[in-house]
Amino acid sequence: MKALVVSALSPDLSGTALSDVAAPQPAPGKVLVRVKAAALNYPDLLMTRGDYQLKPPLPFIPGMEIAGEVIAGDGFAPGAAVVCGTRLGGFAELVSVDADAVRAKPAHLSYAEAAGVGAAYLTAYVALIRLGAAQPGEWALIHGATGGVGLAAVDLAKALGCRVIATSRSAEKLATVAATYPVDAAVTTPGFRERVKEITGGGAKLIYDPVGGDTFDESTRCIAFGGRLLVVGFTSGRIATVPTNIPLIKGFSVIGVRAGEYGRQFPDKGRENQDAIWRLAAEGRIRPHVHAEVPLDDWRAAFEMMRDSRMIGKLVLVP
Description:
By secondary structure, the protein is α/β, with parallel strands linked by helices.
């Protein structure tokens, strides 16, 4: 089968290539799936460089979430439309997945949309609900709102009844988000501090930050007293620090978010989290925005689009 294989870590994708590899075979406790769509996530890009916390041994096939059709396996009929979490192996024509990581695809979602639910919305759910304790009517400031993880948080926060301020460096992309999702305000970065304080009447109670760097620094200046600042990632490239007198004076919490690790530390809650996001998807209360479906043969174009932040929402590879 064709698969995208990382054989050497490199900053320029030179160690990654589409290759012919042995196809997985049916096995007890596994489900063999023909991949119809595989979502590209920022950690996939980081793993090609060795810059992500998960560092699989070389060679490996990246790709952590897919949607496809069952070929064979425990508990699913051949041809069943399913979604799967894989951590690795998704950027291929076939994948073998633990049976307990497979569930039926919501009928109203396309394969591409379904592939884009798992990782992004799980991160948003753990951040906003489990750790951020989001409440209806609260002001939620969502940074990186045009990317996959940020846009999932916008979508989920609105489903929870929050008042949402979406931010991005691109006014054009923000306008597209505001036309698609019912955000309460859209603000470009940097220089958002005073605007956020004006909109909220003093500061945002909940801040979701997958960007880091200067965005984190400025966020500490427009968070409400007793607020929660959720550290989701560092796509800006700089890991910020905060003088401890600032959260002391303003009474806010800085909370680290690792959705996958949360589920590994608390398995029962992890299963509840997964059930919750797929229930919301099945009810039509959340729906990912797919920017483009890119043929697996053109994988490099998708990775470079993500590297340069040229998309809105999710990029999906199609074998």
